[in-house]
Here is the input.
Amino acid sequence: MRIRLHNLRMAFDGREVLHGIDFDHEVSALAVIGPSGGGKSTLLRILGGLQAPTAGTMAVDGEPVTFDEAGLLRYRRGIGFVFQDGGLFHHLTARENVALPLRAVHGLGESEARERADELLERLGVAAEAEKHPVQLSGGQRQRVAIARALAPSPRLLLLDEPTSALDPEYTTELLDVICSLKQQGTRFVIVTHEMGFARHACDDVAFLYDGRLAEYGPSAQVFENPESSELRRFLARLLEWSL
Here is the structure.
């Protein structure tokens, strides 16, 4: 999938948080990294059609994305989005969290939606939790259900916004293993993450956002082994300061 961004800008209350992002590359498994406040989640929400930029253009596989509500609605149908907190409906079971959007948004019948939900919960290792509500699930299980919901309509691109940010190390590792297995099964994704080991070894490419600008982009091994910008060198040095 080729994503093209040209002069993409985003401002909130007159304060610009994305400053003219230009990007034109094939995307298969892309990690977006950088310090907090650098614009990573804002960029991901624009990629997901959840926010319209203040200025600039976006195209996917040569097809321009229009930022009116009708255009964004059409575009969002082909995108799966996983939020930091999962974004599950607390009054619904795990199965219903996956099945409801299939019925309400994508027009599937009840039995077909249920079958698809059960298939994905099984695939992601949470079939035994199908009748549980989110409050009854561990953090890792909730995020697996959230991924199942995002994958349910077979999106052409999966977007994940720091999906491990609220998980302890054990659940973090389990969830990253799940995402890695999705890649091996052909799922294309963009993930905002602070897990540098995952970004380096499981993602094909890395984009480094700093102060609302795309400071560096390239193959994962190249970016981590030979960072070109002083900002990325400082960022990686700080992360490694307290590593084992």
In short: The chain has a mean pLDDT of 94. The two ends are 37 Å apart (CA to CA). The beta strands are 2-12, 15-26, 29-33, 55-60, 63-64, 79-82, 157-161, 189-192, 205-210, 213-219.
